[in-house]
Amino acid sequence: MIKAFSNLSKDVRQYALVTFNYWNFTITDGALRMLVVLHFHQLGYSSLQIASLFLFYEFFGVVTNLIGGWLGAKLGLNRTMNVGLGMQVFALLMLAVPTAYLTVPLVMFAQALSGIAKDLNKMSAKSAIKTLVPNDQQGALYKWIAILTGSKNALKGAGFFIGGLLLTAIGFQYAVVAMATVLLVVLVMSLTWLDKDMGKAKQKIKFSQIFSKSGSINILSAARMFLFGARDVWFVVALPLYLSQVFDWDHTLVGSFLAAWVIAYGLVQGIAPKITGKAKGVVPDGRAAMGWAGLLALVTALVAIGVQASWQPELTIVVGLLIFGAVFAINSSLHSYLIVSYAKDDGVSLDVGFYYMANAMGRLIGTILSGWVYQVAGLAACLWISFAFLAITTVISLWLPAHPKVEVAN
Questions:
Q1: What pLDDT digit, counting tens, does each position of 115-170 carry?
Q2: How far apart are CA 115 and CA 121, in angstroms?
Q3: Closest by alpha carbon to 313, among 265, 379, 232, 236?
Q4: H helices of 309-347, where?
């Protein structure tokens, strides 16, 4: 197997290493999210209190993406990726204490480290792809980004399932130790084989360059913020608690449903190029992003109506949100391609970091609202706020630039 790997071209080997690194990190990230939500719900925490545990996770994601893009361009993407892995190992081990010592400040601090780690890893992985694909192969770039993003989300879904299963089987503390051990092995492999100069800018990068001066990237970043706020306002806290409280689902069943949702979402992301234009020999532009955002807003409104009217609640939730996930996946994949396409070549992580800063801001807003709105008004209200955010995303997307149609590489 090692010999076959060494026979691959350098770019393909680096892509495989980046993807493997990202995959393993993502599984632990999804599992930790599920472990924290379900474990602290089991301990009697309210939905707003649980949401507050993720406050620093999302807040430091905003900061990390902004500064991390600059660090990636200055120091190299391999370093930011490996630092992210190391921080996640440390964050997991911080939580491996007896329940009596698992205080809210400790969990919030560990989640802050995990948030920094996750966004360093994600920014590094997404930026690395830009450095491996020539500019004249936009179709190949779209395909590689779609595969990376889709597989990541499928594995994050698997992480949700693993988190629920581990909590039931071996408990919270043993679960986080097991995940830290796996990531430590991945870190050693990454330190050994990842290209040391990947993504390092050729020109001197000033700290003032962390803010994007590109109009198209600023518009896309604003659309991304509301897109991910629309997802997390019902997904992060409200939905797991609703399934547990209203339908009386156990931890494994809740984890399994959310895992199936994210896995299906990731699979659709992986084939998004075929859905959005590859069959016609073109790559998508800003107009396509606007159209798919509008469709997602419509789907969300229909699910909200069904939940509010209590029409076959379990059927509405399961089927409606699976449809939402499929359409959301295409929106997310389109955005992930467009940011890498719009980004400048030298110091690509600066633009990608700024964009994912907006992504993290949307997640932060969505997380806070998910706990608060669910506590005071229920799941239907969360879905209506999601609809409003998606309507804003659609309007913002009107200003996304179109680009010339480019033949898609096979």
A1: 899 888 877 776 776 666 665 566 666 677 777 777 777 788 888 889 988 998 99
A2: 10
A3: 379
A4: 313-342
